[in-house]
Amino acid sequence: MLPAGNRTEYIRKLVRASKVAVIGIEDAHLLYTDNNGLIDGLSSVTDLKGHSSPLAGNLLIVGRDESGAAASVSAGIDDVASWFTIIRPVFLPVFETLRESQTLGTRVIRLDVRIERSIPNVIR
Questions:
Q1: Could you read off the pLDDT of 37-75 as tens digits, one per residue?
Q2: Based on CB atoms within 10 Å of each CB, which residue in 63, 100, 107, 114 is the most buried?
């Protein structure tokens, strides 16, 4: 639950962002995310099912009651994890074989990039 005091400031601290975006999920939840998260350098982004743009940075999910106010999350952790796909780049070194006199070796001549997608791991 969010504290009764200044919720906006509390959410900003949890998400670690000066500007926070709010996204409604399935009429029963709210997702708070860094509004500028895609601007900074990224090591990964997160796709949310049904949302058109990837999300970056820390995410906070809270429940939403009938009036739209923050409430306890009603979905289980496995359900929440299934809403997301984590997307990250993986660097693949490409090697060149070096043959100099009687020495055989290799060196990296470039890095290719593969995009990996995975669901979040739920740690209990």
A1: 788 778 889 999 989 889 988 899 999 888 877 788 889
A2: 63
Does residue 115 sit within a domain? no
Read off the DSSP letter of residue 55.
B
Beta-bridge partners for 33: 21, 59
pTM to 2 decimal places? 0.76
Within-domain flag for 83: yes
Q: With respect to residue 58, please indicate whether it lies within any of the assigned structural domains.
A: yes
Q: b/e string for 92-116 if b means 16 or more Cβ within 10 A?
A: eeeeeeeeeeeeeeeeeeeeeeeee
- Provide the domain count of the chain: 1
Give the type of residue at 63: G
Q: Which residue range(s) make up the domain with 41?
A: 7-89
Strands (E) across 8-69 are located at 20-25, 29-34, 45-48, 59-64
Q: Are 57 and 15 in contact (CB under 8 A)?
A: yes
Burial class, 120, CB count within 10 angstroms (exposed 0-12 / middle 13-18 / buried 19+): middle
> What is d(CA 38, CA 23) in angstroms, rounded to the nearest whole number?
15
The two three-digit tokens of residue 105, written as one number = 């070796």
